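Researcher: I'd like a candidate sequence for this fold, 387 residues long. If you have to choose between options at a position, lean toward the conservative one.
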């Protein structure tokens, strides 16, 4: 909570998002019509600005095409990098060929190399799975975004861990990176944030490991809030939701705290357009009672013709952090599905097990539990994509 209170070094001055749109000159939004608030094809815009015929723009597009830079039948397929012809006698090519042959001969070496080459995050900007299926030129109707509009980039960081050690300088990376529209509500973003703690089942299932009827934590504890510039935006969409903000405000109002004025609003009624934010300033998203995530507004820009104008594509996941899955400590092959306490067959306490190893070690042929174990469902972070 304290991270979102005060102006940190490197953050921008306070930005009123609604004024961000109003201060822009209409001429800097290419292709937008003042009457119907829709984009005009870019060829028509260029023809009007350059005072030439539309056919001239089409000819320029053909002349300036990047394919004109190719020589004859030059190939652009990157697969040619793995099919090296024998006629090429360059040192760099020979080294590349030797490296590829080593990878094919040694699978462990190949796996090690590929693992080190992987990016720390997965960029999904151009993934077709992010868009709703629609035909080119299809009328979106009520799903078409009203223009002008803004796109706000928001980074969501992993749950905050309280460390007892001092002077710890571990660099944390964002788990998720979203693009949201200014006309969307904060509750729309919350519904898209995936956290493995939402899948927790806080019950010992060792007596009946096949019980699939236990509710998840997200179904039991639906409360949550965003804390942005002194305002608690509470999720009050369900009768069982609690106002976390009021409790914290009572604590903050005690003499000597010096935290400043705070207030509460409903998350499901707050538009991003009405927020006052600082780019680079850490704010707080909290759910499950004490699961705190830092969120940072990293960019605000106008919606442009290259962006999707279908409101169903937003909030849009742009990146998600690539994480290593937790393996079963017994077979070291399958992903962990159980965390077990007091197991006589485990090298550590508690210990991770996959489904097969968990039942093989802790139950007899009749399915009866062996020993005095406690078992809880475990959901790996790599599986928490869309909850």
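Model: Candidate sequence:
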């Amino acid at each position: 909570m304290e991270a979102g209170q005060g102006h940190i070094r490197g953050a921008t001055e306070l930005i009123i998002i609604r004024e961000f749109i109003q201060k822009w000159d209409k001429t800097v939004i290419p292709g937008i019509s003042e009457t119907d608030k829709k984009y005009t094809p870019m060829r028509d815009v260029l023809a009007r600005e350059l005072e030439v015929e539309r056919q001239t723009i089409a000819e320029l597009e053909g002349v300036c095409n990047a394919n004109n830079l190719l020589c004859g039948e030059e190939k652009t397929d990157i697969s040619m990098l793995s099919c090296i012809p024998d006629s090429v006698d360059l040192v760099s090519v020979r080294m590349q060929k030797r490296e590829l042959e080593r990878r094919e001969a040694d699978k462990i070496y190949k796996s090690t190399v590929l693992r080190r080459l992987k990016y720390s995050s997965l960029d999904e900007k151009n993934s077709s799975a992010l868009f709703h299926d629609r035909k080119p030129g299809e009328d979106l109707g009520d799903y078409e975004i009203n223009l002008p509009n803004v796109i706000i980039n928001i980074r969501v960081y992993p749950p905050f861990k309280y460390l007892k050690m001092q002077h710890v300088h571990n660099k944390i990376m964002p788990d998720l990176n979203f693009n949201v529209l200014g006309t969307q509500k904060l509750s729309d973003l919350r519904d898209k944030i995936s956290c493995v703690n939402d899948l927790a089942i806080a019950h010992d299932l060792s007596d009946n490991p096949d019980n699939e009827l236990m509710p998840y934590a997200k179904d039991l504890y639906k409360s949550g809030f965003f804390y942005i510039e002194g305002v608690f935006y509470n999720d009050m969409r369900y009768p069982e939701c609690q106002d976390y903000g009021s409790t914290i405000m009572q604590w903050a109002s005690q003499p000597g705290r010096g935290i400043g004025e705070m207030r509460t609003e409903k998350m499901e009624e707050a538009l991003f357009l009405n927020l006052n934010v600082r780019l680079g300033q850490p704010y707080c998203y909290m759910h499950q009672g004490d699961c705190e995530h830092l969120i940072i507004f990293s960019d605000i820009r106008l919606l442009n013709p290259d962006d999707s104008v279908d409101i169903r594509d937003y909030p849009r996941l742009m990146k998600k952090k690539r994480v290593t899955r937790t393996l079963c400590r017994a077979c070291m092959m399958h992903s962990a599905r159980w965390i077990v306490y007091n197991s006589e067959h485990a090298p550590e306490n508690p210990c991770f097990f996959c489904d097969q190893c968990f039942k093989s070690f802790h139950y007899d042929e009749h399915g009866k539990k062996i020993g005095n174990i406690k078992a809880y469902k475990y959901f790996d972070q790599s599986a928490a994509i869309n909850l």
